[in-house]
Amino acid sequence: MDAFYASVEQRDFPEYRGKPLVVGGKPDSRGVVSTASYEARQYGIRSAMPSSKAYQLCPTAIFVYPRFDAYTAVSKSLREIFSRYTDLIEPLSLDEAYLDVTEDKLGIGSALDIAQSIKDAIKNELNLTASAGVSINKFVAKVASDMNKPDGLTFIGPSKIEAFMEKLPVEKFFGVGKVTSAKMKAMQINIGADLKKLTEAQLIAQFGKSGRFYYQIVRGIDDRPVRANREAKSVGAEDTLSEDTNEDAVMHDLLKQISETVAKRLEKHQLSGKTVTLKIKFADFKLITRSRSFATPISKAAVIYAEAIKLLEEAAIGTTQVRLLGITLSRFYDDVEIEKPESNQLEFEF
Question: Which residues are annotated as a binding site for Mg(2+)?
């Protein structure tokens, strides 16, 4: 979807249309930008940017808090549209999914025509726009979907994939973040053609397991199937402190709130996990994480909170000022279907 949260807001509130709109924290808060409308992006406003910075870039922008119930309802409608064309749907988020249309339920006969038909249905029924990428595998389709936003449709056929990947800047490779991109550029790897010069062994030596993935995708090789009803790999929540602090009482109070949020989300999806991860972002935006695994799955807020406190203590932040805290639970039964008896769960009085 194109600028999803902002587009839903502009659809539902005509007074926002054609104006720079920021969905996220208010400019006088310590929140961050969740999504910016295309009008706001012209000023350099981007997702994950501090709201205060967004305000500096565009003081006339409209700032609104997210309405997740509205976005979830639209996401459900999107899924209903997708299901008319195929049963193989792998959601990535509320506004993005992979579709394997090999089955072609409506007998349309062309993946490109199917994509256009889906885009038309979204526009006609939901009054929103989407961009689609069409190709023979997930990686290339994902890259293609980002190429001509908004309201784009990009097809990259089998004969053009390798040439396309060779010209693609490494920072445009799906899965290559800022750190990896910087490391690649320091190695004079700027585009796919540069990446292609390295052997698989060299890439693994430099980037670990991801090196094998980079070796394959730069050649257009991606055999990952579209997994319908893909299970979540992690459930988490995070929040920004009202002001930078290193006071235990303030951080403990926020961690308690976050633990309760995570526990509610786990309960909603009937999940329990074995690994708790604490995320700490400092005032200078440096980020660290600390994790610990349990022998049996956990899901109770009190247990999550107690472990988060331990991880915070082990991080030994001292006098360093903290800006944001987050908690994530992962390793949901190691993908093994098991019972979730309450007696297996470590409990603390709280």
Answer: 95
